[in-house]
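Collaborator request log, item 7. Partner lab (contact: R.S.) asked for a structural prediction of ABC transporter permease to inform their binding assays.
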Amino acid sequence: MTTAAVTAPVAPSPGRPASLRRRRATGLAVCVAAVLLACVASLAFGSRVVAWPDVVAGVLHPDLDDIAQAAVHSRITRTLLGALVGAALGLAGAVMQGLTRNPLADPGLLGVSSGASFAVVCGIAWLGVSSLTQYIWLAFLGAAVAAALVYAVGSIGREGATPLKLALAGAATSAALVSMVSMVLLTRTDVYDTFRFWQVGSIGRASLGEIGQVLPFLLVGAVLAVGSARGMDAIALGDEVATGLGQRIGRVRALGALAAVLLCGAAVAIAGPIGFVGLVVPHAARRFTGPDHRWLLPYSATLGAALLLAADVVGRLVARPQEIEVGIVTALIGAPVFLMILRRQKVRDL
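Returned to partner:
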């Protein structure tokens, strides 16, 4: 498909900067409030609905002999993971759309999800990997290698890593890796039962220790993403203009891609491949911030956290006392939005 350029940043008129900043700051505060509300809902709702006093007690000083407070205490890790993974995917999606100037870019564009899936299925099939702690690192390694391969292939030629070449290299790599995953599963049917629980995408099976293992990667990725914001604003104007403004395009794209790999790889490793968050959230954020990445990135992180937590709550409520995994819920939400984006951008096939 062709890459439809993300709208280039337009400088506000001299009389508007202060009011524009106030509106954006107010909007960001509303987004943070939405995350807090989603966190409360995540703690309160599930197979058992917990009253507000028990939510507070279960967080601050839980009595584990009390069923309601014990339920809240058991949901804290899930809520923390949902907020972190949602923020990481939203932030990574904004970075990837900015780097490629492609409004359809998401964390799958650089082959991160498919690379992680292939590494995990190989680890289960041939290395005897059976615990989440073990295949976190395999997933992260697979994601990083796949993204590096996509960037290397997309950089071939005199023009370097252009948006179109990166998109095509990512699509080809993802398709090849998905086929290889299917090949392994077809030849090793005993692997499927273990792999499918990770592949569906869930935030309900990790521990605080496992979150601690991926947290440094998420933090470093977030810092690199925010540090690349000004460079991505220049890239939105076109590579030639960005170079004329003094930006080192190769360096900005390399750091941005590294940020996306760290964020996506860590999120996918611990929660599985959760789709559409990285695609939908930046589009929603851009309606409030415009194309300025200094505001777009924090909006995307907070909206991503709120969306993933809300989707997880919905999955727990609609199938009580069972639950629908969050990866399925986000797909149901994201697919119609994806179609709307396609119609709006009038994307054509090559």
